[in-house]
Design brief:
Blueprint: H1 2-6, E1 11-16, H2 30-38, E2 41-47, H3 58-72, E3 79-83, H4 87-96, E4 101-105, H5 107-112, E5 121-130, E6 135-136, E7 141-142, E8 147-153, H6 170-185, E9 190-195, E10 198-202, E11 210-216, E12 227-230
Parallel strand pairs: 1-2, 2-3, 3-4
Antiparallel strand pairs: 5-8, 5-12, 6-7, 8-11, 9-10, 9-12, 10-11
Helix pairs in contact: 3-4
GO molecular function: catalytic activity
Length: 245
Amino acid sequence: MALAKDQPGVPVVVEVLTSLRRHGVQPTDLESLIRPLDELDVRGFALHLPLDEQGAGTKVKDVISWASRLTDAGLSPHTLWVSHLSAAELAQVRTTLSTTTIKPRVGTQLWHGNREHFAVNATVLDVHEVAKGDRVGYRQQSAPKDGHVLVVSGGTFHGVGLEAPSVSRGLTGRGKAVARTGLQAFGKAASPFWLAGQRLWFAEPPHMQVSMVWLPGDMAAPEIGAPLTCQVRMTTAHFDEVFGL
């Protein structure tokens, strides 16, 4: 290892390859690590585990199996950093590996945050009354019924309308995915903006800095400057202002 040669004694954490199969040392490479790691300050080993598992206890077994492999290879696993384990799974690992310090990696929880402790709001920038059939937006979509078009802060620059591909599981999940695709084929897409407990629909795909949404005629139009609740994916969101930190 070049690091052992160039910077002997530098502190390192060695990641091993779990069933996630993203990064890490493979079991077949452990023996070749012994001599290079002797020249480094090994603080422990890291296991990046998957979110889902195939069968009960798979992730726990993965951690215990790796601890055994490391011990058999002569690499003392005195400290293991593990990710995506529940409190019960973490307790089980600590009980089984009682002589090893188990440290949970909690970056995902910190990054996503607890939604009970923060709120995301957009601002109403403009309000336009429309009649059924009126054309709006770049794509000139027709209003489905009488009501209003709201122009609100928050566009693709902020992460509105952006989402990562997801895995649909079970008939219900796949059915919802098919329904969303079908609605989008007819120009209908639910927005992340809410007013008075009701989710609003995009009038057209979000613009870079703003979005245009339909407001049904039976709902009172908000004042310009009023806030709208916004539910966005925290890993793709970019905010104009952050308060309270």
